[in-house]
Amino acid sequence: MSEKFAKKWEESSYQQPFTSKIREAVRPPGPLKPRLDMAIRRLELQIQKLDQASERFSQRDKSIFARIVDAYTKHDMARANVFANELAEIRKMEKMIMHARLALEQIVLRLRTVSELGDIVTTLAPAVSVLRSVKSGMAGVFPEAERELGQIGNLLSGIIIDAGQSTGLTLNFEATNEDAQKILNEAAMVAEQKIKEKLPELPTGIPAPPLGEKTQTQTP
Description:
Blueprint: H1 3-10, H2 32-73, H3 77-112, H4 120-138, H5 143-167, H6 173-198
């Protein structure tokens, strides 16, 4: 690790000159490690919020599923199908939340491995790409999470810029995009499996809710 980067990585914020505070309007200044730790804490908070949202949707899922079963046992297929359509929207949301949570969890795991400058750019760049993808999925559904993920992405981008300036490393965009897509694909596969294991199947005769489409259902 170069002396220049070691200082930038570990130095305390109070050592920053007063003039550097002006740059806070653009991106957080100062050493990289505390900024990286801050990003991790903020991501973990978003994961907790997604867990809370998932629990709310899960309870709603159980309630509506019970209504479907009740209507089905009374041979009220019209009512059962109405509830089934509502359940379909809820399960799309549950899958989206699960996918987002798993992707953020993968980002946190990767950020925790960063301890040397040599891998900071290659680790953070795909993480920013994943954050942008998750953020776009939150649009119109969890606006607060969308804004927070955008800010975290900006924070990580600032770290990447500073790390690149300290080392002269250039970003391989093709490799970055491929790595980000692997993270998203893995999260999608695990989310699909977890949803299937978690949610009961509908009674025979009622169309199964599709899980692959996006929805704009509001948070309960």
